[in-house]
Write a structure and sequence with these properties.
The complex is a heterodimer of chains A (159) and B (781). Chain A has 159 residues and is mostly helical. Chain A has six helices and two strands, in the order ααααββαα. Chain A has one domain. In chain A, 23% of the residues are buried. In chain B, helix 8 packs across helix 23 and helix 12 runs parallel beside helix 15. Chain B is globular, with a radius of gyration of 33 Å. The chains are: A mainly alpha (159), B mainly alpha (781). Chain A: It is a multi-pass membrane protein.
Amino acid sequence: LFDLIIKRVKTMEGLYRLPFNVVQCPNLKLKKPSWIRKPSNTMVLFGLLVSYFLVTAGVIYDIIVEPPSVGSTTDEYGHHKPVAFMAWRINGQYIMEGLAAAFMFTLGGLGFILLDQTNKPNMPRLNRVLMILCSFIFILVAYCATKIFIRIKMPSYLT
Amino acid sequence: MTTVNDNTSEYITNSSSSSAGLKSLITVIILICVCISGFISRLFSIIRFESVIHEFDPWFNYRSTVYMTDNGFYNFLNWFDDLAWYPLGRIVGGTVFPGLMVTSGTIHWFFHMINIPIHIREICVFLAPVFSGLTALATYLLTKELWSKRAGLFAAAFIAIAPGYSSRSVAGSYDNEAIAIFALIFTYYLWIRSIKTGSIFWSSCTALSYFYMVSAWGGYVFIINLIPVHVGFLLLLGRYSLRLYVSYSIFYILGLILSMQIPFVGFQPVRTSEHMIAAGIFILLQAYTFFDYLYNKLRYVRNIETIFFNLSIIISIIVFAIVVLLTYTGYIAPWSGRFYSLWDTSYAAKHIPIIISVSEHQPTTWTSFFFDLHLLICLYPVGAWFCVKDLNDERVFILLYAVFASYFAGVMIRLMLTLTPCVCILAAIALSKTLDYYADAESSEMVSNYDDSVSICDEVENDENNQYLDNNAQNIDETDDNDDDQNFLTSNIKIIVVTCIAMMLLLFIVHCTWITATAYSSPSIVLVSYNSDGTRAIVDDYREAYYWLRQNTPEKARIMSWWDYGYQIAGMSNRTVLVDNNTWNNSHIALVGKAMASNETEAYKIMTMLDVDYILVIFGGVIGFSGDDINKFLWMVRIAEGEHPKDIKENNYFNDNKEYRVDKSGSPILFNCLMYKLCYYRFGELYTDSAQPSGFDRTRSVEIGHKNFDLEHVEEAYTSANWIVRIYRVKKLSNRFQAKDALEKLTSSLSEESFEKNDGKGVILNKPHVKKGTKKSMRRT
């Protein structure tokens, strides 16, 4: 038996082929499942923006601490008025204010993405102008709204 | 510095060498300005007060550094600190990350060697700002590898002033994060470099930098988990290459051996779950490489790809099963509490209240995101999107870093620090790509060629670029007829866009500086309040009281206080403390909490058992300081209740409305506990506000409920100027304990009435009562 092996194994290649003289490769029909596909770019962008929205809204804070959706104060007539922003506390928030702020951040991000999309070649002029206008509006709105939110929350900001 | 490709050599004119020199000069100048600005923006507290170590943890680091410079490195590694955690002591050499102390010690030694005698305190105070400049440089290098040099400059500028990073690295904040973030980014830069080149040299450098990181911070677990996950994702995406194999294998083995040299880490890298991902990926990578090698030899066999693919999956499942088995049988320790609470966020609340009582470990709200990152928050997903569009090996890494860092930053405020470099890098990429187009006034629609040639030439400023690209643009841009007015329109819009972006960056700088100046520069050991006319009133009570302790107590005196102040007391007063910020022994802390929460007699028993000489409490009621011990008292109760549930119950300290109040409606148990008595002793006679009655607590805004009491076993030793720090001396037992009504008790038990009550039998005090057991048959019914 030993001589047989030595005769057959003339090179390293022969050594690799040795098991296949004894064992036969099974005729398997294994395939990667067809529904596993690399996600398209738009899907990835959508997933990115949604997860970013949730994280910056402080969703984890909401899950752990469970603050109310909006606060409430009573004015001098005894009516309950809702309070949107928890004032003066940096490490506390209501659910709605977190979602609102995260929406503003995502809006700003979308504005910058649009700003980059405008410089694709071969775009009609109307589309291009509209896109630039849109992105300007998005970024401005996001910035002003965030500034207002912070002023409500902490009146001494930037003073 | 410029990597000139052969294709573009035709476009390079004779002035290329001088303009290349000009580009590097501008790069160097910008980087120097970035370093200087990062250094200066962290100096606010030095200018306002003086150069003093801040907060709590840095005091321990400072004390260790002083010990090391006085006694040498090996004595520091073998140091057993008997001043802390009396009577247990603390093995400092084995429970500390020595990187910070070694760094300052080295700088100190170097300066003394060249005869500049700087005091160690100055080095410790200014270490963090200096390292922030180095971090900016490391971020520049990392972003240069990921995208381009222009993005690198933006990233360096962002990280130099970003409040998320400067909050933990102001001058005076002498903590591990000061050097750890630099080590983190530098290790990541070397890792990306070694993946791109696949050379042994860069991988070994990565391992050395990883060693520095392990010596610096417990957050090295982030590196040793992110890099294997990166390798795993590259394998999944089919981006395997021999460079990956070489770099990860060398990094893992060398990094493993080097990381085990730190005494604190010891054998953890082979025995705890936090390091198992790295080991598992290492084995998987060996198997994958082996299969890849076989595949190259056995191409002719049918279906060889699917077979090997499935074999890899089977190997990974086997490795995972082995790890799970080893964890189950106990050979591998499970995830420790600190890291497990990042996944299961309710775990710490139920089991380890100390973790959740730290204010930095609370989950993050949107304001923290905005305050720490401002403009970068909007640019961050844009940069991630750009990386997704042009994916390659290193951009997979930064995307993984972004995903994990975002999640962790959402869970814990403290981890915003690890998110900040990633945000700076991705925001710089986004801004750089946008400005690539809009900041160039020449080219209009030929974007793709422009991008290629620019990225090949690696420009810094676009102005010098125009003379080369004029040739490029004019050669290609020939047929557009209505180009002129379109160019005019687009160039106007470009100017507007660039101006707007510049204004936003200016606002970003204003915000960063304002936040660093107002929110993150307080030294915590010196408090400031501003009067109505703007003058400052400095409250220096802490240092005053600690210095009193240092000068007026015997050297072996033992101080009992809550663990927050342990490091400061040990550092400034040089006295023995019972518990300090290391919080390694929960039972000891629970004992102290029980002593604070019990009444005076019970507390005295604990204090004599622990050999306490002085008690120190912090009380903010006179000036309205809200970080005092009465506000922290519920945490003391909770921690004590965790260990002694029968003696301490949290509900006893609430009033009938389930509120925690110190006014008349407070619970009597609260009024009798040691903490209340020590804080409010003699406070009932004090008028804090002329409009309010005496004993008005300005922090809680109520008049206290229990005044005019006496202390039995302690006496007041010192109260600081604004009553913030109050120190009490524990009195020794008097010679004989007099029970007040012992005689009456004795006579009443021997009196006629009780004699009759007991059917004529005598009575023995404290006689044990025997309970008759029931028969088995009767019990069944």
